[in-house]
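R.M. (postdoc): so does anyone remember the format we settled on? I'll just put the structure tokens first.
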């Protein structure tokens, strides 16, 4: 595996030994990415988090895949977590280029590459721009997000609606309690993984690792992306995993998923009823089981 042999110790809270962390290393792919690695054989899995999230949110799924014998890598994408935070380069094409560099540097033979939410849209961009690099793609409640194509949407309204809440200065424990109360079915480790989206400051309050300026730059790139133009360019098999969470965006999600399913040349669809948008945190075992089944039963069989 062509990863730098020198371990890199990321800043707290990423290095908490209590969370039974995988190996963590820095990898240069044009930007320095903080990478979490689980041992196993090929074909490997590369797992991408969503906007304003972090690599640790994939830990529960990654352990299932590694236990089944597969190597797994999960990076903090640029601007996020412990990775480098350059001033520019936050469009889907830029982040997909980082991902292509990561896949090449790992040296794995055509891994499966999966992304959640915005990470799914990055994976879609990878498939369209870098054909033949992967065995298959996974879109987990994302990849089909088409903000500009939603009826009546404007950039100003979208930016206002999706602007992140102001959490800087919130006491660490108060925020954790809020996340815990809002997700009663999640494990404590899942809650802690979400808390890793924030830096814990000396005064006991939080600060998001992703700045507001970079958050809005990513959102603008997502706005400008047109998934419907990318679907026909993706030749690898694609597995779509969609959550039904009863939110007010349920019908929008159904329309976008249906459009992706129709337009992707080779795709399979799995719905997760009564499941949070963060399927990988809410139903990690079920999601990992879908990945393993698709890999072993031909869904991710590779190029024809």
């Amino acid at each position: 595996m062509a990863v730098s042999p020198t371990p890199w110790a990321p800043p707290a809270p990423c290095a908490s030994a209590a969370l039974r962390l995988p190996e963590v290393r820095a990898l240069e792919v044009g930007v320095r990415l903080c990478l979490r690695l689980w041992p196993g054989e090929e074909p490997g899995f590369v797992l991408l988090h969503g906007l304003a999230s972090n690599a640790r949110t994939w830990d529960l799924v990654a352990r299932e895949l590694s236990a089944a014998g597969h190597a797994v890598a999960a990076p903090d994408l640029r601007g996020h977590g412990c990775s480098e935070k350059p001033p520019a380069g936050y469009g889907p094409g830029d982040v997909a280029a980082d991902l292509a560099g990561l896949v090449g540097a790992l040296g794995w033979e055509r891994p499966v590459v999966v992304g959640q939410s915005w990470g799914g849209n990055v994976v879609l961009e990878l498939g369209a721009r870098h054909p033949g690099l992967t065995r298959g793609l996974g879109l987990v409640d994302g990849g089909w997000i088409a903000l500009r194509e939603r009826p009546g949407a404007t950039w100003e309204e979208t930016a206002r609606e999706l602007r992140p809440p102001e959490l800087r200065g919130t006491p660490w424990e108060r925020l954790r309690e809020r996340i815990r109360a809002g997700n009663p079915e999640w494990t404590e480790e899942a809650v802690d993984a979400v808390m890793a989206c924030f830096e814990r400051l000396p005064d006991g309050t939080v600060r998001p690792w992703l700045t507001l300026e970079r958050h809005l730059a990513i959102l603008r790139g997502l706005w400008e992306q047109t998934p419907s133009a990318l679907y026909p360019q993706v030749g690898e098999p694609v597995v779509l995993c969609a959550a039904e969470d009863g939110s007010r965006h349920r019908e929008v999600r159904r329309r976008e998923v249906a459009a992706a399913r129709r337009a992707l040349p080779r795709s399979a669809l799995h719905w997760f009823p009564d499941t949070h948008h963060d399927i990988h945190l809410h139903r990690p075992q079920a999601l990992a089981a879908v990945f393993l089944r698709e890999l072993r039963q031909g869904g991710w069989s590779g190029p024809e």
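R.M.: ...and that's the designed sequence above, right after the tokens. Also worth knowing: DSSP finds eleven helices and ten strands in the chain. Residues 1-20 have pLDDT under 50 and may be disordered.
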